[in-house]
Amino acid sequence: MSAVQPNFILRMAGLTFAILAFVIGPALFIYMAAFLGNLWPHTAPLVEPSVDVGRTFAPHWAALNNIGLIALFGAQHSLMSRTWFKAWLCRFVALDLERSCYVMASNIALVLLLVFWRPIPITLYDLGDGVLEDLVWSVFVIGWILLVAGLVAIGPRDLLGLNQAWAWFNGDRYQEPPFVSNWLFERVRHPLYMALLICLWVTPHMTLGHVLFAAGFSLYIAVGIRLEERDLISRFGKAYADYRARTPAVIPRFFN
Q1: For a 10 Å CB count at each end of the chain, is N or C smaller?
Q2: Residue 251 belongs to a domain
Q3: Which residues are CB-neighbours of 19 under 8 A, at least 6 positions away?
Q4: What percent of the chain has pLDDT over 90?
């Protein structure tokens, strides 16, 4: 806690910023569910553009555009999660607002990706109408349920920076939650990434554009796991190293 606290107006502005970042993040994931599902692929989509519907370019130009957007999203996440960048950012903003800045920047990068995405509607497979399609959609929905469950298990107010900003607003020192492995985390180390992979790849109608989107995010997940686990070992030491040794990363263990 700093010796001199910012005035009320500045603290209120910081808290408002954190609340906006906290609210926009989950709203974008709801939008992303409609984006990936086309809701539904054989009727008018709920959102446009969606992964397969919207204004597009020639396939090669659309692919370049989309790869650039995915790269921007991944670069923002990787850059802002580095220790040296956090130290630089905290020269300009309060330490306990750093997480909210990261979340808001992630929100902006995701908005750019979703809004400026250009579909490549070249069908790779289509399960058509029927029981198999309904089964695939059920798994898709389960993926999003697991994503919400993972957020709840982690604690969204800590993950998205709201608790940190609230502590700063009140002039308190934020206490980082201890490392625990319970509920979903007893079966898999990264339930959010597991759920997101389901949401990305499970669809009854797969296009080239959808594969590009899913592959790009899967690469981000692979890199993200490596960087995140390095930070977790640095933070929690042997406790996390032992946990990692006995718990799979994204494919859950159903039996002890």
Answers
A1: C
A2: no
A3: 162, 165
A4: 59
Give the domain extent around 71: 8-246
Is residue 205 helix, strand or coil?
strand
The per-residue pLDDT for range 101-122, each reduced to its tens digit, is 999 999 999 999 999 999 999 9
Tell me if the pTM is above 0.85: yes
In which residue are the tokens 């992303």 written? Answer: 32
Look at residue 72 and tell me if it is in a domain.
yes
Q: Where are the beta strands (DSSP E) in the chain?
A: 123-126, 205-207
Q: How many other β-carbons are positioned within 10 Å of the β-carbon of residue 86?
A: 15
Residue 223 in tokens? 């890199």
Contact 114, 72 (CB under 8 A): no
Mean pLDDT of 77-95: 90
What pLDDT digit, counting tens, does each position of 40-80 carry?
545 556 677 889 988 888 999 999 999 999 999 999 988 89
* Beta-carbon contacts of residue 240 (< 8 Å; ≥ 6 apart): 179, 229, 232, 233
Residue 3 in domain:
no
Query: Which among 115, 150, 136 is positioned nearest to 37, based on CA atoms?
Result: 136
Classify residue 171 as exposed, middle or buried by CB count within 10 Å of its CB (0-12, 13-18, 19+): exposed
- Cβ burial 200-232 (10 Å sphere, 16+ → b, else e): bbbbbbbbbbbbbbbebbeebbeebeeeebeeb
Q: What is the pLDDT of residue 255?
A: 53
3-state SS assignment for residue 126:
strand
